[in-house]
Amino acid sequence: MPQDAYTLRYVADGLEKLLVGGKISKINMPEKDELSLIIYTRSGSVKLEICTSAKNCRMSIGKSEKSNPPVAANFCMLLRKHLQNAQITAVRQVGFERIIALDFDCVSDFSFSQMTLYCEIMGKYSNIVLVENGIILGALKQTTLEENAKRVLFSGVKYTLPPPQGKADPTNLSALEEVFGGRAADEKFICANVEGIAYSTAAEMCAFYGGDVTAAQVYEYVNSDDIAPCVTYGENGEPDDFKAHTVRSNFKAYPDILSAQRDYYDFVYVKKTFEDARRKLTTALHAAIKKVEKRLAQESAKLLECEAADGIKLKGELITANIYRIERGMTSFEADDYYSEEPRKIKIELDRQLTPSQNAQKYYKKYAKMKRTVEILSVQKAETEARLDYLNSISAHICAAECVDDLKEIESELIADGLLKAPAQKKVKGKKTEEAAPLRQYEIDGFTVYAGRNNAQNDRLLRTLSPDDIWLHTNRYHSSHVGIVTGGRAVPDEVIAGAAAICAYYSEARGRDKVTVDYALRRFVKKPPKANLGFVTYTDYSNIIVAPNPHREWAKN
Q: What pLDDT shows up at residue 541?
């Protein structure tokens, strides 16, 4: 549902019932375009979020915990100065505009004042403005005379509403009838000619009445208090909108618009946070992979050049064997290749300024240099391949991640590896160190099964398993390590198959129909000294072919 005036009317009504009489306890700005107010009300503590981003502008009740920057923004400090401990006296929609005003009584030891916080929910033009006696004290997004001559927003000037758009007021039936001219209209006409109605709202209105609508129907729809708040779901099963009315069949009903809005934007925030975190890690990792792949290509090309080393040595030997035929000043000569099974001649280039012996030594030195290069590059190439394999294993875990917790230790892994810069953190005295996310846990026919979320957890899982427990990993693909805690019991094939399906799902092979998974007793799985996180070797293993499946019905967390 877009945050049009129609939607904001119900949001304002809900906020008025909930917030009036409440006092401001905390004021934070977790993002540059988002304000968070913690308000003590009769029904308990409430978190009000006011977002001015173009995509998710809104006023809603918050649910998710969000971290705050180490240093508060100037606008946040201004609000703390004036609104800390202020009491909310009214929450109202300004006319039929996309503006909700919060009125405050601000009381201190020596003064009393009344202020209004105007929350303009208008897409990319959204803003938050603090006003006292009609004069602006501060705005989140300030303008100047040069930027906008019609409406200025900065401290000391008079607050004015946005200029009217010349559309019909849907709360005035006469104005609507004049615009409609006695005919029914579709959603495009409504959106273009009726104030405060977005296209999607107009489309819902037309669907509600079964086609084009009249002025009277628009008036009835907009001014009715008979609403059915809900969150609608898309074909992928995820929430895609919240609405006051809907004619769609796939939805979840809510008792009020604030609850529907809260749950929808909580999903949006969690999804956006996860996608942003994954994008950040993926960008850093792909840059590192590209760099390593370039180095590997250079090493492979150099080794390919050195494959001619035996031919260089042969030329030196042929010069030595035919030295009696060569005279100084010759640029080349042909010699019989006595190593070849079939008779053939080889043309050998010579440096005319060198003696025959010196020409032979030149080829021997070049051969020796190539041999040293091969020895050094072979080691370097093996290290580079191991490095690339390790980075690809991290990439596989990022792709398999399903929530922010899955990414936290991966971020720490990249920071420790130097691929990401550690974020600046505000030091809080007495704050406990954040605990690592738990292993994925399942219960399959009485057997506890664990799965790692990343390389660090894969190592942790290996350390927790007993020698007689079963360890699983996909064959030839990077994947989570999975462990079956046997407790000394024999493990049925069905349990191994279920654990293998989970292992295959959290792997690079998730999109395949069938995946081969290796499994072995923990005693046959070894962690080489100084090996990368998540790297092991194993012997005495069997394998099973399964279809990837997360088996969420068995999940315990």
A: 97
Q: Is 398 exposed, middle or buried (0-12, 13-18, 19+ CB in 10 A)?
A: buried
pLDDT digits (tens, 9 = 90+) for 8-36: 999 999 999 999 999 999 999 999 999 99
Q: Are 68 and 428 in contact (CB under 8 A)?
A: no
Residue whose C-alpha is closest to residue 532's, from 393, 354, 406: 393
Of 511, 493, 494, the closest CA to residue 548 belongs to 511
pLDDT for res 177: 92
Residue-wise pLDDT for 354-378, tens only, equals: 999 999 999 999 999 999 999 999 9
Q: Answer yes or no: are the C-beta atoms of 94 and 118 closer than 8 Å.
A: yes
Q: Are strands 542-546 and 525-526 parallel, antiparallel or unpaired?
A: unpaired
Q: How far is CA 437 from CA 360, 420, 428, in A?
A: 66, 20, 21
**Residue 82 and residue 135: Cα distance in Å, rounded?**
14
Taking Cα atoms as reference points, which of 444, 442, 439 lies closest to residue 464?
439
Query: What residues in the chain have per-residue pLDDT under 70?
Result: 1-2, 145-149, 424-436
Answer for the pair 452, 460: CB distance below 8 angstroms, yes or no.
yes
Contact assessment for residue 219 and residue 205, using Cβ atoms and an 8 Å cutoff: no
Three-class DSSP labels, 150-211? CCCCCCCCECCCCCCCCCECCCCHHHHHHHHCCCCECHHHHHHHECCCCHHHHHHHHHHHCC
CA 11 to CA 6: how far, in whole Å? 9
